[in-house]
C-alpha cells in the first residue's frame, strides 16, 4: 500500500514540472527532482515481512494492579500498533521486543477483539495496514476492602447450619443457657461448676449457628447530568458491593445480587466462591453511561419475587430517587430485613441544586432510619470503618 | 529535536523573504505565497487532515521559485541555494510527520532525505552537460522519461490486484 505522502510527492513532482513549463523556468523542474529521488529510494528498498505477536498473563486482576504486555514486532519499518488497551509507536529493525506495563484502572472487562497494525517504510511512502483479529481478555475486579469480622448479620436465619447465631438452641459456639442433664447429652457439655453448685448434673446450651440469605441490592441509576461525580459514586458503590459479596461468600451464607442501573439484572443466591465470582463478574459490567428511567419498583419486585422472605437485603444506593422510601417500607412489610448503605460525596458543589439534593437525601435517610439500619457513608473514608461499628 | 520541526520552517520562510528582498514585487509575491501556506498550515492544525499537510508544504515549495525569480535559474549558485532551502523544508516535513505519527525519527530517514538533494544536484548537472538537455528533442526526451517513471511508479502492484489465493 502506498501512503498519501507517496501520491503527494508524485503530484509535487508533476506540478513542479508543469510550473517549469508554464513559467519557462528550469528552477521548478530542478526542485521536482528530489521528490523523484525519494520515491526511487523507497521503491528500491528491500521490504521485509512484518508481523506482531503479543503476550500477557491472562488472569484475574484487581484494579490498581499492573499488567505486563510483551510485543514482538517483526519487520524493518516504523510502526503504530493499537489494541484494546495499548498503543505502541516507534521504529523496528528486524525483530524488536517491546514491553509495556499498564496500571489497570478502573474495574471492568477488557476484551481484545481487534488489533490495528500500521507499518510505514523509512521514508513514509510505503505502508502496510492490517486489522488483525485479536483474542484474550482482562478482567479487572473492583478493589476490595478486607474485613475480618462483620457485626452486621441477618435478623432471621434459615434452617441450615451456618455462621450466624440464631435464636434457636443447638450446636454452636456462643453460650446461651444451662439446663438439666438429659439422657443422651454429650459429656463435654456438662457444666461442672453448675453441677457442683446445684448437686445435680447440668449441661451448657449454645446458640445454634445457622445460615442466612443475603441480597445485595445495588442501585446505580443515574438521574442527573454530572457524569464525573456520579462515576465516583458508582465506583464506590460497586467496590462496596464487591467487598460485602466477598466477605459474605467467606461465611456459610447464600449471597445474591440485584443490580438496578439502566436495566435490572439479578443473580440468584448461592454459596461460597462461586457466588463471589458470579457477583464480581457481574459487577464488571456496571457502568453509568446514560441516564436511567427505571423506577425502584423494579428492584423491589425482583427482590420480593425471586428471593425468599426473611432474606437480609443490603441496599447500596445514593438515595437520590424519591421512590426508595416507600419501596423499602414495602419490603420490610414483606418480612425482609434491610440495611441501607448510602454512599455520598459530602461537600462537593455548593450550588442550589446540590444543596436541594443533599437536603432531600437527608430527609430520606431520617425517614429510613425509623424502619431500618442506615449507614450514611462518605466515600472519602473506607466502608469497613463504618461496618465494624454497625450492629 | 521537536523544536527543530518549527525552527526549520521558520528559517526556510525567513530565508525566502531575505532572498526575495531584492525586488518589492517579488517580496510581496513571496509574502502572499507564504501567507497562503501559513493559512493552510492553520487549517491543517484545525482539521488535521493529511491533505492540508501536503497542501501547505507544496505551497511552501512553490514559494521557492517565486522568491528566486530575480536570480539566474541556470546558475549553479542559485540551484544550490534552492536545494539548501528545500532541504530545510523537507526536514520540516519529515520531522513533523514522523514525530506526529511515530513519536520519533531515525537518523537513516534524515540521511536519505538529505541525500536526495546532492543526487538531484548531480542530476541537474548531468541534464545540463548532456546534449539531450537542450532543444526540442531534449524536452520531448525529458517528457518521455517523466511519463515512463510515472507509469512505473503509480502502476498498481501485482499482488494487490490479483484475486488468486
Describe this structure in words.
The complex is a heterodimer of chains A (391) and B (165). Helices cover 33% and strands 34% of the residues of chain A. Chain A is α/β, with parallel strands linked by helices and 391 residues long. In chain A, strands 15-14-13-16-17-18 form a six-stranded mixed β-sheet, sandwiched between helices. A four-stranded antiparallel β-sheet of chain A has the order 5-4-8-9, with no helix packed on it. In chain A, strands 1-3-6 form a three-stranded antiparallel β-sheet, with no helix packed on it. The mean pLDDT of chain A is 86. Chain B is an all-alpha fold. Chain B contains seven helices and no strands. In chain B, helix 1 runs antiparallel to helix 2 (24-47), helix 2 packs antiparallel against helix 3 and helix 3 (50-67) packs antiparallel against helix 4. The radius of gyration of chain B is 19 Å and the shape is globular. The A-B interface holds A 1, 4-5, 8, 10-12, 14-17, 19, 23, 25-28, 30-31, 33-39, 41, 43, 78-80, 89-91, 120, 122-124 and B 50-51, 54, 57-58, 61-62, 64-65, 68-69, 73-74, 78-79, 82-83, 86, 90, 94, 97-98, 101-104, 106, 108-109, 112-113, 115-117, 119-120, 123-124, 146, 149-150, 153-154, 160.
- Which descriptor suits the 3D outline of chain A? elongated
The number of distinct β-strands of chain B equals 0
Largest interface, chains and sizes: A-B, 38 and 44 residues
- Biggest β-sheet of chain A: count, sense, barrel? 6 strands, mixed
Order of helices and strands of chain A: HHEEEEEEEEEEEHEEHEEHHEHEHEH
Number of strands of chain A: 18
Shape of chain B: globular
Strand arrangement across the biggest beta sheet of chain A: 15-14-13-16-17-18
Oligomer: heterodimer
Order of helices and strands of chain B: HHHHHHH
Q: DSSP helix count of chain A? A: 9
**Helix percent band of chain A:** 25-40%
Largest sheet of chain B: none
C-alpha Rg of chain A (nearest Å):
33 Å
User: Mean pLDDT of chain B, nearest integer?
Assistant: 86
Low-confidence stretches of chain B: none
Query: What is the end-to-end distance of chain A?
Result: 69 Å
Percentage of residues in DSSP E strands of chain A: 25-35%
Distance between the termini of chain B: 46 Å
Helical residue percent band of chain B: over 70%
Cα-based radius of gyration of chain B, to the nearest Å = 19 Å
Amino acid at each position: 500500500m502506498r501512503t498519501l505522502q507517496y501520491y503527494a510527492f508524485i503530484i509535487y513532482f508533476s506540478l513542479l514540472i508543469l510550473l517549469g513549463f508554464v513559467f519557462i523556468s528550469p528552477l521548478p523542474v530542478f526542485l521536482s527532482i528530489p521528490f523523484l529521488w525519494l520515491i526511487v529510494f523507497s521503491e528500491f528498498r528491500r521490504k521485509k515481512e512484518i508481523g506482531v505477536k503479543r503476550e500477557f498473563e491472562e488472569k484475574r486482576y484487581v484494579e490498581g494492579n499492573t499488567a505486563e504486555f510483551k510485543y514482538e514486532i517483526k519487520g524493518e519499518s516504523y510502526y503504530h500498533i493499537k489494541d484494546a488497551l495499548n498503543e505502541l509507536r516507534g521504529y523496528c529493525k528486524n525483530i524488536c521486543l517491546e514491553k509495556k506495563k499498564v496500571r489497570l484502572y478502573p474495574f471492568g472487562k477488557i476484551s481484545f477483539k481487534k488489533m490495528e497494525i500500521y507499518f510505514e517504510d523509512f521514508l513514509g511512502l510505503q505502508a502496510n495496514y492490517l486489522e488483525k483479529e485479536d483474542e484474550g481478555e482482562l478482567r479487572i475486579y473492583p478493589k476490595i476492602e478486607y474485613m475480618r469480622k462483620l457485626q452486621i448479620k441477618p435478623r432471621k436465619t434459615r434452617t441450615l447450619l451456618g455462621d450466624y447465631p440464631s435464636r434457636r438452641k443447638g450446636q454452636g459456639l456462643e453460650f446461651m443457657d444451662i439446663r438439666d442433664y438429659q439422657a443422651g447429652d454429650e459429656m463435654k457439655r456438662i457444666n461442672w461448676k453448675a453441677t457442683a453448685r446445684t448437686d445435680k448434673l447440668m449441661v451448657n446450651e449454645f446458640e445454634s449457628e445457622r445460615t442466612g440469605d443475603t441480597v445485595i441490592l445495588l442501585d446505580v441509576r443515574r438521574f442527573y447530568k454530572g457524569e464525573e461525580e456520579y462515576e465516583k459514586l458508582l465506583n464506590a458503590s460497586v467496590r462496596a458491593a464487591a467487598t460485602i459479596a466477598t466477605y459474605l461468600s467467606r461465611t456459610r451464607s447464600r449471597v445474591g445480587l440485584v443490580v438496578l442501573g439502566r436495566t435490572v439484572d439479578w443473580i440468584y443466591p448461592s454459596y461460597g466462591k462461586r457466588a463471589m465470582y458470579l457477583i464480581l463478574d457481574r459487577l464488571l459490567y456496571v457502568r453509568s453511561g446514560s441516564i436511567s428511567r427505571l423506577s425502584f419498583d423494579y428492584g423491589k419486585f425482583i427482590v420480593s419475587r425471586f428471593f425468599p422472605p426473611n432474606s437480609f437485603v443490603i441496599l447500596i444506593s445514593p438515595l437520590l430517587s424519591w421512590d426508595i422510601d416507600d419501596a423499602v417500607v414495602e419490603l420490610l412489610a414483606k418480612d425482609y430485613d434491610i440495611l441501607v448503605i448510602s454512599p455520598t460525596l459530602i461537600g462537593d458543589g455548593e450550588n442550589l441544586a446540590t444543596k436541594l439534593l443533599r437536603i432531600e437525601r437527608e430527609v430520606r435517610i431520617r425517614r429510613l432510619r425509623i424502619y431500618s439500619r442506615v449507614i450514611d457513608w462518605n466515600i472519602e473514608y473506607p466502608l469497613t470503618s463504618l461496618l465494624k461499628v454497625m450492629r | 529535536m521537536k523544536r527543530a520541526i518549527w525552527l526549520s520552517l521558520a528559517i526556510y520562510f525567513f530565508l525566502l523573504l531575505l532572498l526575495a528582498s531584492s525586488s518589492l514585487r517579488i517580496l510581496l509575491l513571496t509574502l502572499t505565497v507564504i501567507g497562503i501556506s501559513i493559512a493552510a498550515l492553520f487549517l491543517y492544525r484545525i482539521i488535521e487532515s493529511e491533505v492540508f499537510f501536503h497542501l501547505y508544504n507544496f505551497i511552501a515549495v512553490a514559494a521557492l521559485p517565486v522568491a528566486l525569480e530575480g536570480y539566474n535559474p541556470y546558475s549553479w549558485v542559485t540551484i544550490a541555494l534552492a536545494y539548501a532551502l528545500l532541504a530545510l523544508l523537507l526536514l520540516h516535513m519529515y520531522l513533523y510527520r514522523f514525530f506526529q505519527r511515530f513519536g520519533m525519527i531515525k537518523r537513516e530517514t534524515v540521511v536519505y532525505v538529505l541525500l536526495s538533494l546532492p543526487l538531484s544536484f548531480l542530476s541537474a548537472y548531468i541534464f545540463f552537460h548532456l546534449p539531450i538537455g537542450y532543444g526540442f528533442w531534449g524536452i520531448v526526451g525529458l517528457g518521455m522519461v517523466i511519463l515512463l517513471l510515472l507509469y512505473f511508479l503509480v502502476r498498481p502492484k501485482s499482488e494487490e490486484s490479483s484475486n488468486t489465493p
